[in-house]
Amino acid sequence: MGTGWRLYDFPLEPKKHWNFSASAFLRGKYENYEFSNRVDKIEEVKTAAGTFKAYRIVRSITLKGGPGPGAYPRHHLQTTSCSPPT
Fold first, then answer.
1. Per-domain residue ranges of the chain
2. Model-level pTM?
3. Which of 8, 16, 55, 65 is deepest in the core (most CB within 10 A)?
4. Which helix (DSSP H) or strand (DSSP E) does residue 66 occupy?
């Protein structure tokens, strides 16, 4: 990854939004991305180690620039979780 990445913007809280642009060296060239992030809610996540509260983060990723042969999709929606500080 390149500079400018801000996947988390602490402190997190439900309904918090943040955006950022960043670049990454991918498949032999730099690609520019725009990210729109939102803390959707706090939910319980079950794992083999137990049940934990975590922030549910919804992230929309847009690849900037025109598509080309073998290019990634221009838009991508991702959901991830982040454990709250204890």
1. 17-82
2. 0.74
3. 55
4. none
